[in-house]
Amino acid sequence: MADTVDIESLLALPALAALPRRAADLLRAAAKDGPAACVDPRGVLEDTLEALALLDADGEVMVAAILHVVPDWARRDAAARSTPGSALPALLEGQAAANQVWALHAEQAPGRGHEGLRRLLLAIVRDLRVVSILLARQLARMRAADALPSDERLALARLTRDIHAPLANRLGIWQLKWELEDLAFRHLEPATYRRIAKLLDDKRAGRERYIAEVTRVLADALAGAGIEGADIAGRPKHIYSIWKKMQKKDVPIGELYDLRAVRVLVDDVQACYAALGVVHALWTPVPGEFDDYIARPKNNDYRSLHTAVVGPGGKTLEVQIRTREMHEQAERGVAAHWRYKETGGSQRSAAGEAAVNR
Predict the structure, then answer these.
(1) Residue 92 — φ and ψ, nearest 5°?
(2) d(CA 248, CA 269)
(3) Less CB within 10 Å around the terminal CB: N or C of the chain?
(4) Contact present, 175 and 55 (Cβ < 8 Å)
């Protein structure tokens, strides 16, 4: 039986705390006849809205995400959607059109390439913000996938692996990419996932002590070099990316450089390179393990300095260095460019167009 939702309890959610009054009034008008059935479980809808809030989605995106899964409200909202300058029609049509891609994916034979489907999805979406809704909803559905029958859960995981996670990567939305990959991997390769997770857990306490010591030493060295206000933190580990590196390098987990990793955030590009000099003066660099993605950004506009060094105790350590602005871009990707002007209308940022055309 489908969950029902009422508008006032939705509007009371923390994820909608910043919803503009015009968007809230639009939803109240659509829901004037009372609670309605929701296509997704209520928890999935709430989780979708939370993920969108973390991406700093605007009011139109929030409204479109709700109306898509509450079809009765969407039907009652036809007048509001016909308002000149409203982007809601494109946002709702894009979500509906995506169902065609999901159906084509379900019909594809195993082992077929999926790049064509990803390009098709980007081609039929008139408003690139639709992709943020699709990714947020898929993440929420994957978080709740344990409650699904086995065949539905595996189909959802395959779709996530083949379409959603690569799209999040292409658009540079790391904040969603890592979790989409890990959740799909957990359901599709449960034994391998558990094995790597256990290896990480077994070494967690020692790794956390090591990172705390690295952070203290590096913070002192940066301050001594006049690089003030740097933020240093351990970088979270993602099981799918660890497994991919084990496969690519054909090495056991203990030989991966970035099991021990820290991220350094500074104010500007000059401070990035100054911090790199401090790191290399402190610890011996590992040959062949330096990448300058500031001078040569990745295709999805990711920018950062990556280096591996022989850190305290002779243990390898990965260090990533970037500005705070680069870090926000790395977390939110093209979503950082999805704030629309009050005049409305569909638009794509230069970064968005580049992502679509890759």
Answers:
(1) -75, -40
(2) 31
(3) N
(4) yes
Exposed, middle or buried by CB within 10 Å (0-12, 13-18, 19+), for 148?
A: middle
347 confidence band (pLDDT: 50, 70, 90): very low
Contacts of 299 by beta carbon, 8 Å cutoff, 6+ apart: 170, 358
| pTM for the full predicted model | 0.81
Residue spans per domain, the chain: 3-188, 195-331
The rounded Cα 251 to chain-centroid distance in angstroms is 28
Quick one: CATH architecture of 195-331?
Answer: 2-Layer Sandwich (3.30)
Contact 4, 40 (CB under 8 A): no
pLDDT digits (tens, 9 = 90+) for 97-138: 999 999 999 998 776 789 999 999 999 998 989 999 999 999
CATH class of residue range 3-188: mainly alpha
Confidence of residue 202 (pLDDT cuts 50, 70, 90): low
Q: Give the per-residue SS3 of the chain.
A: CCEEECHHHHHCCHHHCCCCHHHHHHHHHHCCCCCEEECCCHHHHHHHHHHHHHCCCCHHHHHHHHHHHCHHHHHHCHHHHCCCCCCHHHHHHHHHHHHHHHHHHHHCCCCCCCHHHHHHHHHHCCCCHHHHHHHHHHHHHHHCHHHCCHHHHHHHHHHHHHHHHHHHHHCCCHHHHHHHHHHHHHHHCHHHHHHHHHHHHHCHHHHHHHHHHHHHHHHHHHHHCCCCCCEEEECCCCHHHHHHHHHHHCCCHHHCHHHCEEEEEECCHHHHHHHHHHHHHHCEECCCCCEECCCCCCCCCCCCEEEEEECHHHCEEEEEEEEHHHHHHHHHHHHHHCCCCCCCCCCCCHHHHHHHHC
Q: Taking the mean position of all CA atoms in its chain, how far away is CA 104?
A: 24
The mean pLDDT value for 240-261 works out to 77
pLDDT tens across 43-71, in order? 999 999 999 999 999 999 999 999 999 99
Q: Is residue 330 a contact partner of residue 304, using CB atoms and an 8 Å limit?
A: yes
Q: What token pair was written down for 135?
A: 């990714």
